[in-house]
C-alpha cells in the first residue's frame, strides 16, 4: 500500500516535469519559426510559453510528491 502511494506521487511529479520539457520544446520551436518568418508576435508567444515552462518546472521542484 505504501509503495502504491509513493509510486502515484512520483508519477505525478514526473508528469509535471514532462509538461515542463514539452513546453520548453514548443517554445524553442516557436522561437525558431519566429526567427525564420521575422514575426515578432510569434517571438513574444515563444517567450510566454517559455515562462509557462519555467513555472511548471518550479512547481515540479517545489511541490511535495
From TrEMBL:
Instruction: Give a yes or no for keyword Membrane in this entry.
Output: yes
Keywords of this entry:
Membrane, Transmembrane, Transmembrane helix
What Pfam family is a match for this entry? DUF4337
Q: What is this protein called?
A: DUF4337 family protein
Transmembrane portions of the chain: 17-37, 43-63
| Organism of this sequence | Deinococcus rufus
InterPro entries attached to this UniProt entry = DUF4337
